[in-house]
Amino acid sequence: RELARLLGGRITLESRVGEGSVFTLTLPRAYDAAQVPPRETPAPAPHVSPQSEPPPERRQSVSASIEDDRDHLAGTRRLLLVVEDDDRFAAIVRDLSRELGFQCIVAGTAQEALKLAKRHRPSAVVLDVGLPDQSGLTVLDVLKRDDDTRHIPIHVVSAEDHSQTALSLGAIGYLVKPVKREDLAEVLRTLEETLTRTVRRVLIVEDDLVQRDAVSRLLASGDVETVGVGTAAECLEQLRTQTFDCMVLDLTLPDASGFSLLETLSREGGHGFPPVIVYTGRDLSPDHEQQLRRYSSSIIIKGAKSPERLLDEVSLFLHQVVSELPPEQQKMIRKAR
């Protein structure tokens, strides 16, 4: 979105019930820097085109028929927001969440989900993509662009596989329906573990010691621990024995390329594969960039403002509250935007 703005263009989203979402990038034939609009503050979710409006009988929120905890919330307990238009599935997630000690509120539309998230600031969200009014990906995008809600861990559970897009937007995980009850329970346990951890861990994979130390100092705060390694072999060993919330990866390593390391991680799948931010000084060809995006959540080319962008991306995947970060880090994140 930011790149489109800088080029004088725009990105639009159109959702159609039962078909999915289409992102359209529009750029001018002739670029004029003077006509580039200033950066906008987070806007409300885009309106769906009239032809994608659901029939009237589907517009009633599922929450009207699902009993939840919105009228008797206790501030001391964690709150789960379930965004799901299938009342049976919503009830299953609600019951499971209560068994694990969550309070639960249910939204059946994207509009209601955004309203409830703003009003109640839930501890976590379980989100469906195929909502009757807009794509759940729009909900995810809006929540992750708002400093008041971007720290909330969101797990997507949907009948369609939009995992690459969802994870790149900051989702903590993705499940494709149909799912077993045990899988849903594991999703909720993962959310619970994320909320319980007081220290976030970042693995920095960079063979240049000076650069590695610089990234570590950039990300350091009272609740962030960094571990640095200089080879692909050391990276694999760390991931096999420890848990990390995020990984920052340089593509140039002495024993393997970053591409082959990501392929190995994807292929093995037997150990934790955290969100990966590729932080590189290399110029990437379109083919290489497409290859990387199969595995990485974000690609940042080292250059002007790149430390600020890296900090912004890492804080997103660590689910940090921006207003609680050290003042200098808050300033850098604002500069990145």
Discrete helix count: 12
- Give the % helix: 25-40%
- The CATH superfamily of the largest domain is identified as Response regulator
Radius of gyration, rounded?
20 Å
| CATH uppermost class of the largest domain | Alpha Beta
Sheet bearing the most strands, described? 5 strands, parallel
Envelope shape: globular
Level-2 CATH architecture of the largest domain: 3-Layer(aba) Sandwich
Low-confidence stretches: 45-60
Helix and strand content put the structural class at: alpha/beta
The count of β-strands is 12
**What count of structural domains?**
3
Task: Indicate the CATH topology of the largest domain.
Answer: Rossmann fold
Report what the structure shows.
The structure is a single chain. The protein is α/β, with parallel strands linked by helices. It folds into 3 domains: 2-52, no CATH class; 58-196, Rossmann fold; 200-336, Response regulator (Rossmann fold, 3-Layer(aba) Sandwich). The protein has helices at residues 2-6, 87-99, 110-120, 136-145, 163-169, 181-196, 209-219, 232-241, 258-268, 286-293, 306-317, 327-336, and strands at residues 10-16, 20-26, 79-83, 103-107, 124-127, 154-158, 173-176, 200-205, 224-229, 246-249, 276-280, 298-301. A 5-stranded parallel β-sheet has the order 4-3-5-6-7, with helices on both faces. Strands 9-8-10-11-12 form a 5-stranded parallel β-sheet, with helices on both faces. Helix 2 (87-99) links the parallel strand 3 and strand 4. Helix 2 crosses helix 6 (181-196), helix 3 (110-120) runs parallel beside helix 4 (136-145) and helix 11 crosses helix 12 (327-336). The radius of gyration is 20 Å and the shape is globular. The chain starts with a helix and ends with a helix. Residues 45-60 have low confidence and may be disordered.
